[in-house]
Amino acid sequence: MKIIALTLGPVETNCYIVADEESNEAIVIDPSWDGEQIAKAALDAGLKIKEIWLTHAHFDHIGGIASLVNALPEKPPVYLHADDYDLWKSGGGGARFGIQIDLGPEPIRLEDGQILKVGKYAFESRHTPGHRPGHSVFYSAEAGILFSGDLIFYRSVGRTDLPGGNWATLEKSIHEKIYTLPNETRVFSGHGDETSVGDEKINNQFIKA
């Protein structure tokens, strides 16, 4: 598996291009900003973007969708949990910060437990509310990789003071959907550095295992 990480946009949000190197099929998780740059990074690596997966619909995670889709020869489907459709329709909450974005194509409903594929790799979509009601993470057991969005970061956690956030729900999601994974699972989050489940269980001061 090949992972290309790009940190883009006004609040330095991580976008990930995830690919099966045998087939050169790729998906994009959270095209945060500068869609043309994401498309170029994939092209330069010889990858074909097949789908777009969204952890949630805050503006800094969806701001590059429209320009990414427009830069591709074939328009890929976009997946988002239905509980975040309202935020997507309202522009990702960007108006609170004076930011307007082009939404791009309407997402397809993403279900809890749904299996998504990139080449030969399978990812399970896990509904993890707390930061947002429709927040989801993407976990590949065979690759030992989790894309955690804004649920959990390197020794930190996502905000719960924005509309739709709830601390008790966030804590429950982390305990039930993250800390139950193998300790060696690599965690790629929406902001900041890579971490692991085991490191967070020991060193995350916000939510202990």
Gap from first CA to last CA: 29 Å
What is the CA-based Rg, rounded?
Answer: 16 Å
Largest sheet: 6 strands, mixed
Q: What's the count of strands? A: 14
The CATH topology corresponds to Metallo-beta-lactamase, Chain A
Percent strand equals 25-35%
Counted by DSSP, the helix tally is 6
Level-1 CATH class name: Alpha Beta
Average residue-wise pLDDT:
97
Summed up, the domain count is 1
Structural class: alpha/beta
Percent range for helical residues? 10-25%
CATH homologous superfamily heading: Ribonuclease Z/Hydroxyacylglutathione hydrolase-like
Order of helices and strands: EEEHEHHEHEEEEEEEHEEH
Overall CATH architecture: 4-Layer Sandwich
Provide structural commentary:
By secondary structure, this protein is of the alpha/beta class. It has a single domain (2-92, 107-203), classed as Metallo-beta-lactamase, Chain A (4-Layer Sandwich). The chain has 6 helices and 14 strands. The chain has a 6-stranded mixed sheet with strand order 1-2-3-4-5-6, with helices on one face.
